[in-house]
TrEMBL record:
Protein name: Tryptophan synthase beta chain
Entry-linked CDD domains: Trp-synth_B
E.C. number(s) listed in UniProt: 4.2.1.20
Keyword tags: Amino-acid biosynthesis, Aromatic amino acid biosynthesis, Lyase, Pyridoxal phosphate, Tryptophan biosynthesis
Length: 398
């Protein structure tokens, strides 16, 4: 293998599968990012924004009621839902926007599915006084009108994407194309641990604040490592951030929870690692849900944030090596967890995060009371209340 082909590899996964026009730009970003990564003033600037804008560190909360109710392992929740804008996405967006600023870029573009990443990007663009354009599948703009308006309120322009099935994967393609056509002043802020190198690495690094904090917080409270870390997996950014600082601690079991939708074996699922196969898409080699002709399959999950047909290359490698385990949770199980954590702990968590909570409900009772689970709550659930009510057959006027 040529040296350049080894760049950004996780085992056989990762790499850079992109048009020639973007290659030079990615090399510039790669070089600049590796310089900045070790630059103390960049790190101080990043940390200042995380603390004073995003409200970090997030709490590591002991879920006493859940622990007692489930009667097994002690459960700690890493509260990314308490960050500014209500999810972990802000950690990554702040980091990439700072890289963009250092590269002299004045315009940020991004894809969004449900609108969470678009909102986070529009937020930072407003803060930094940068231009912002968001690409969103036309289907999604119709389903998520409130987030479209929120992005516009923050000063962003939202482009409905009308190619393909007009959903997230098409929005990624459209953003890549836009980037290739206007590189000089523009930076593409990718929303998950996916895409060509060095994006998965940048996202890993910027989200690793989750596990660095959690490790230290648990050390202070219990003077020990957790036995298990659980996080939901869409593209895999909150999960890789939750795993990062524990990957080299072999005693810590890492569990990524995928959205099984109507069931891992049904044809309405987003369980990419369990059901997918090796392919090349969105600039990376990884696992994707594909049909027999290698076309990307339609994905389905009740949670818009987990509705991605692929997964980040580092997760594909962690799964292959057996360092992390990946399990599926269905819509019904996630909705039950949404209600459970609200009633037990008084926390309305994002339906994405509730996939992780549902797995904790299953696994905690099988563990000893001296064992510890850290479960990441990737976001807050306000955005989901109306659709869960509908799922339960409750009519809400809006
Ligand atoms: C976007 C999102 C996810 C899924 O994305 P990952 O990159 O897999 O973390 C999960 N939870 C919330 C709240 C999200 O907004």
């Amino acid at each position: 293998m040529l040296e350049t082909q080894k760049k950004g590899r996780y085992g056989e996964f990762g790499g850079q599968y992109i048009p020639e026009t973007l290659m030079t730009q990615l090399e510039i970003i790669d070089r600049e990012y590796h310089r900045l990564k070790n630059d103390s003033s960049f790190r101080a600037e990043l940390n200042d924004l995380l603390v004073n804008y995003a409200n970090r560190p997030s709490l590591l909360y002991y879920a006493k009621n859940m622990t007692e109710d489930l009667g097994g392992a002690q459960i700690y929740l890493k509260r990314e839902d308490l960050n500014h804008t209500g999810a972990h996405k802000i950690n990554n967006v702040i980091g990439q926007a700072l890289v963009a600023k250092h590269l002299g870029k004045t315009r940020l573009i991004a894809e969004t599915g449900a609108g969470q990443h678009g909102v986070a990007t529009a937020t930072i663009a407003a803060l930094f006084g940068m231009e912002c354009e968001i690409f969103m599948g036309k289907e999604d703009t119709e389903r998520q009108k409130l987030n479209v308006y929120r992005m516009e309120l923050l000063g962003a322009k939202v482009h409905p994407v009308t190619t393909g099935s007009m959903v997230l994967k098409d929005a990624v393609n459209a953003t890549m194309q836009e980037w290739a056509s206007r590189i000089d002043d523009t930076f593409y802020i990718l929303g998950s641990a996916v895409g060509p190198a060095p994006f998965p690495e940048m996202v890993h690094d910027f989200q690793s604040v989750i596990s660095k904090e959690a490790k230290q917080q648990l050390q202070e409270k219990k003077h020990t490592l957790p036995d298990m870390v659980v996080a939901c997996v869409g593209g895999g950014s909150n999960a890789i951030g939750s795993f990062a600082d524990f990957i080299d601690d072999p005693s810590v079991q890492l569990v990524g929870v995928e959205a099984a939708g109507k069931g891992v074996d049904s044809n309405r699922t987003a369980a990419t690692i369990e059901r997918g196969s090796v392919g090349i898409f969105h600039g990376m080699k990884s696992l994707f849900l594909q049909d027999q002709n290698g076309q990307i399959d339609k994905v389905y999950s009740i949670s818009a944030g987990l509705d991605y047909p692929g997964v980040g290359p580092e997760h594909a490698a962690l799964a292959e090596e057996g360092r992390a385990q990946y399990v599926g949770i269905t819509d019904d199980e996630a909705v039950a967890a949404f209600e459970y954590i609200a009633r037990e702990e008084g926390i309305v968590a994002a339906i994405e995060s509730c996939h992780a909570v549902a797995y904790v409900q299953k696994i905690a009772p099988t563990m000893r009371q001296d064992q510890i689970i850290i479960c990441t709550l990737s976001g807050r659930g306000d955005k989901d209340v109306a659709s869960i009510a509908k799922y339960k057959g409750v009519e809400i006027d809006d």
